[in-house]
Design goal:
Among the domains are: 110 residues, Zinc/RING finger domain, C3HC4 (zinc finger) (Herpes Virus-1, 2-Layer Sandwich), CATH 3.30.40; 155 residues, no CATH class. By secondary structure, the protein is of the alpha+beta class. It has 14 helices and 36 strands. The strands form 11 sheets. The protein has a 4-stranded antiparallel β-sheet with strand order 12-35-34-33, with no helix packed on it. The protein has a 4-stranded antiparallel β-sheet with strand order 13-14-15-16. A 4-stranded antiparallel β-sheet has the order 17-18-19-20, with no helix packed on it. The longest helix is centred in the middle third of the chain and has 107 residues. It is elongated and about 175 Å long.
């Protein structure tokens, strides 16, 4: 049952055409790596007139084009020119040998391959017990006799078939039904002898496949070794990543425990303060209540005495006894009863009317944001994100007036031409702020930094004019080129060291990193934004928004937002777009009138999520909200700005490079230092209970 389930999963996931959702029939693989039935691919091609005009075969899955090998031939033959997928066909044949499958192969290998081929062609089914080495077909006893009786085949070599020997039918030409035992090296395809005469007579190199066996074995063995090595490297890398994930989860559990301990300590302190205050409250209220209870007891005794006096006087008055009335009269005259009454009045007047109140020393308005248990940070070996947090930690004030903080000269010894910076990024390497930018005129990448209180620089010569640079990791950047099918990865130490070259199918004008392993790249012909992995493989291509609102025209600069979306500065449509990596439309900024963008270039985001766009022709930097709404012109020509292109915001500073400028201008855009440092750190201060006389 388990084997059956595995076979079923293999059929569904790897041996099923995504167009007809059935098993592959005559499978072929396009240059993008996706496989389809030739018949299904031919039907799909007929629906794509744009691809036919481009003389290419589109992939129904990823839309990547595969150039037709012989575009001058009829369109119906383009799909047949694609190499068959021997790997998929081999899997199909192997599964067919193992039993029933979902691909219409219901006979076992012994039932299909060890059958007489001439009889099968006539609709009969006879077991083969011999094999013609010249015709390369299995034969039954009857066909062996007919083979020997015919003049054309009487001299063929007939061999016996052992019970364990299995025969496969040679591949035949779909047009001439002849065995394809030749190979055209110019066209890189297997052909029959009729194709040699009909279509390949002008080709320079047509040889037999048999003569290429040694070369093919050598190439396949070599490629097998390379793939095996890549498999091993990838396996080790995956194991390392899994170990890192285990270490991250272990560290997470450890930090989780530490955070809970810190929280528990804070709660223990608060509980202790609560206990002390409640004990003091109980002590003081008990003291107050004790005084009052004593006075209440004394008053109750006095009331009993007064009650007795009242009852005695009442009885005397009722009795009318002159003697008893005279005795009471004498007690009143001597002041005995009056003293008791006066004493009660004095007692009542001296009772203090007071209450306890609680005076809190905690500001409830700031309690939720100022109480601090601690912070989570990374150690030195994992400095990438902490350094990014560090350089982005400054607070951006959207209403501030930027002040020119400094200028960094970018012309160095050895420059034969005036510097022409295009893009800029900032990293923190070993605690030092490092400025990295592309110089098109000098065909190089430059870095500027300070070490031991001295200004230093590094220069890396490149193969072509660089256009865009983006921070990829903690100390790595990626660089694209105007007219070169390549992306280079450079390590910043802070000196520049070339790590690798990634060959791409397009000449990408601009880049931004979505993650350490994923890039977004802009291309202008046809205009699109591609999502790439670090090997240069196109994961997805976005050219038109799903809503159909706008078409990307000329993406010049890109920037990733903190939400993972992509900001596109489009000089062709004079607009700024925001799209998701899946190609969904978020917003577009296309102002008209006085606010119309003259030439949008560099684009960056601030620590508050605001968007900054360099307007090249208007000599200004425009400030937008995170939703793409206009706020104001942050910098203009009055601030000394001329033809701004690349932008980068870090640590409350805006870095601006200008076309043919010899310096990078750094503007301070932060809240005044005194206001930014106003923090009310909550300590374990004790509330106070005191008596207040009302």
């Amino acid at each position: 049952m388990a084997a059956a389930r595995k076979l079923e999963s293999l059929n569904e996931n790897f041996l099923t055409c995504s167009i007809c959702t059935e098993g592959y029939k005559d499978p072929c693989t396009l240059t993008c790596g996706h496989t389809f039935c030739k018949g299904c691919l031919g039907k799909f091609l007929k629906t794509r007139q744009d691809a036919i005009r481009a003389k290419s075969i589109p992939c129904p899955y990823c839309r990547q084009m595969t150039q037709a090998p012989q575009p001058d031939r009829p369109v119906e033959e383009w799909v047949n020119q694609i190499k068959p997928s021997f790997l998929i066909q081999g899997l199909l044949d192997t599964l067919a040998c193992g039993g029933n499958t979902d691909h219409g192969l219901s006979m076992t290998c012994s039932d299909t391959e060890n059958r007489c081929h001439p009889c099968q062609d006539l609709g009969d089914s006879q077991s083969a017990n011999s094999y013609c080495q010249d015709c390369d077909v299995p034969l039954c006893e009857r066909c062996v006799k007919m083979h020997a009786s015919l003049p054309g085949t009487s001299n063929h070599v007939i061999a016996d078939l052992g019970g364990a020997v299995k025969v496969t039918r040679p591949q035949r030409c779909s047009e001439h039904n002849e065995v394809m035992d030749f190979c055209c090296r110019d066209c890189n395809r297997a052909i029959c002898h009729k194709c040699c005469v009909t279509y390949h007579r002008k080709c320079d190199s047509v040889v037999t496949i048999q003569s290429m066996m040694s070369e093919m074995r050598s190439v396949l063995t070599h490629n097998k070794g390379l793939i095996t090595q890549s498999f091993g490297d990838t396996y080790r890398s995956l194991q390392q990543h899994k170990s890192q994930i285990d270490a991250i989860n272990h560290n997470k559990d450890k930090l989780n425990s530490q955070i809970r301990q810190a929280s528990q300590k804070a709660m223990d302190v608060i509980k202790q303060k609560e206990k002390e205050l409640l004990e003091e409250l109980n002590e003081m209220t008990e003291k107050q209540s004790g005084q009052l209870r004593g006075r209440i007891k004394s008053g109750e005794i006095d009331m009993q005495m007064y009650q007795q006096h009242i009852e005695y006087i009442t009885q005397v008055l009722k009795s009318g006894s002159e003697t008893d009335m005279f005795d009471i009269y004498q007690m009143c005259q001597c002041g005995a009863i009056k003293e008791a009454t006066d004493r009660d009045v004095t007692f009542t007047g001296n009772v203090p009317d007071s209450k306890l109140i609680f005076v809190s020393e905690i500001d409830e308005r700031k309690l939720h944001k100022d109480v601090k248990l601690g912070r989570i940070q990374q150690n030195v070996c994992d400095v990438m994100d902490t350094q990014l947090d560090k350089i982005q930690s400054g607070t951006f004030d959207a209403m501030c007036r930027p002040v020119l903080h400094k200028t960094v000269g970018i012309k160095v010894n050895g420059d034969r031409k005036q510097p022409d910076p295009c893009d800029v990024t900032v990293l923190v390497v070993d605690g030092e702020e490092t400025l990295v930018f592309t110089d098109r005129n000098s065909t190089c990448l430059k870095s500027f930094y300070t070490k031991n209180n001295k200004s230093r620089h590094s220069k890396l010569d490149l193969a072509s004019n660089p256009s865009s640079v983006t921070r990829l990791r903690d100390n790595q950047v990626a660089v694209s080129f105007w007219s070169h099918n390549e992306i280079v990865i450079v390590r910043v130490t802070p000196d520049l060291v070339l790590l690798s070259r990634v060959t791409t199918k397009k000449k990408y004008k601009c880049l931004t990193a979505l993650s350490p392993s994923t890039l977004a790249a802009g291309f202008w012909d046809p205009p699109c934004v591609d999502i790439l992995d670090v090997s240069g493989r196109v994961i997805r291509s976005v050219s038109r928004f799903d809503s159909g609102k706008s078409l990307i025209d000329d993406p010049g600069y890109l920037c990733a937002t903190d939400r993972g979306n992509i900001l596109v500065s489009d000089a062709g449509s004079q607009s700024v777009y925001c799209i998701t990596p899946e190609g969904d439309f978020v917003f577009t900024y296309t102002p008209t009138g006085e606010r119309r963008l003259g030439g949008p270039r560099g684009i960056t985001t601030t620590s508050t999520g605001h968007i900054l766009v360099a307007d090249y022709l208007a000599h200004k930097v425009v400030l937008l909200t995170a939703a793409g709404e206009f706020v104001r012109d942050l910098l203009t020509s009055q601030d000394g700005l001329q033809y701004p292109c690349g932008l980068m915001f870090c640590d409350s500073k805006l870095y601006v490079v200008e076309y043919y400028g010899d310096a990078v201008k750094v503007f301070n855009c932060s809240i005044p230092q005194g206001d930014a440092r106003k923090q009310n750190i909550l300590g374990s201060r004790r509330g106070e209970i005191f008596m207040m006389k009302i």
